[in-house]
From TrEMBL:
NCBIfam families: PRK10858.1 (NF008111). It holds the Pfam family P-II. Belongs to the P(II) protein family. Coiled coil: none annotated. Signal peptide: none annotated. This is Nitrogen regulatory protein P-II. The keyword Transcription applies. The keyword Phosphoprotein applies. GO terms for biological process: regulation of nitrogen utilization. GO terms for cellular component: cytosol. It comes from the Bacteria. GO terms for molecular function: ATP binding; enzyme regulator activity. Keywords: Nucleotide-binding, Phosphoprotein, Transcription, Transcription regulation. It comes from Colwellia hornerae.
Length: 112
């Protein structure tokens, strides 16, 4: 099993969720996060004063899938989240050792 974490632009979330749903992904965790990479930040004007916005709003999507589903998920995320502009985000894939469904006690792939 693998955990896919994707950091994407907030306005792309609905498209990504829909694309993942179309390939059979039914569960995910979504968090509103802030951060920056090469994009750094940007300056904004507020009441005539310019100030630096260091952390940009992003959405973090977490999905645990079987190893066989990883490439389809990654491709769906890339195809729908990509704008071609700086700040499109990143995808991280890590191994998941064990999953337990609290309600039933099911484990691993049965718990996904």
């Amino acid at each position: 099993m693998k955990k896919i974490e994707a950091i994407i632009k907030p306005f792309k979330m609905d498209d990504v969720r829909e694309a993942l749903s179309e390939i059979g992904i039914t569960g995910m965790t979504v968090s509103e996060v802030k951060g920056f990479g090469r994009q750094k930040g940007h300056t904004e004007l507020y009441r005539g004063a310019e100030y630096m916005v260091d952390f940009l709003p992003k959405v973090k999507l977490e999905i645990v899938v079987t190893t066989e589903q990883v490439e389809r998920c990654v491709n769906a995320i890339i195809e729908t989240a990509q704008t071609g502009k700086i700040g499109d985000g990143k995808i991280f894939i890590t191994d998941v050792e064990r999953v337990i469904r609290i309600r039933t006690g099911e484990e691993d792939e049965a718990a996904i």
